[in-house]
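The records we work with from here on pair a chain with its fold. These numbers are not coordinates but entries in a learned vocabulary of local backbone shapes. To see the layout at work, look at the sequence and tokens printed below.
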Amino acid sequence: MLYWELFITFLKIGLLSFGGGYAVIPMVQFEVEKYSWLSAEEFQRIVSLAGMSPGPVATNSATLIGYHTAGIPGAVTATTGIILPSLLIVILIAAFFFKINKNPLVQSSFYGLRPIITGLIVYAALHFGFSGNGETIFQWSTFATLLTAAAAFLAIIKYKLHPLVVILLSACAGIVLF
């Protein structure tokens, strides 16, 4: 019965959760209090730990709540419940996309989106190069960041280095340059 409650509860949360993991926390808290699975202090610790762990906070919270409530089977049950709706939706969208991706209009729209996406990524990179106090692009740290980004791009495109190697080299460059 407990496993069923965990599964249905987190299935409902996974199905109705919009706005990201932290937006789901009040719904998770309501359900946890309804079933008395955790004390308020335990819930706060679990959400804190879930937020510090890699991955989505809602999924991490479900896993930790399931584990605290019913051990490893509870963790698997709660995690399955919260990710199942998203998994099914992605599968349905992928199946639909697979049928229409050869359509010339769809292909053309994706070709049209490429420069926009590239522009948004470049904007984000430049935006992070600025500090909040209005520094200009000609600051040393921004120049070094742009130089490192150009070197990383060249290393991947021209020299076919593995992205992990480029990330590690970029981290070393950050230590040296900053």
Remarks:
- The chain has a mean pLDDT of 85.
- The chain has seven helices and no strands.
- The CA atoms of residues 152 and 166 lie 6 Å apart.
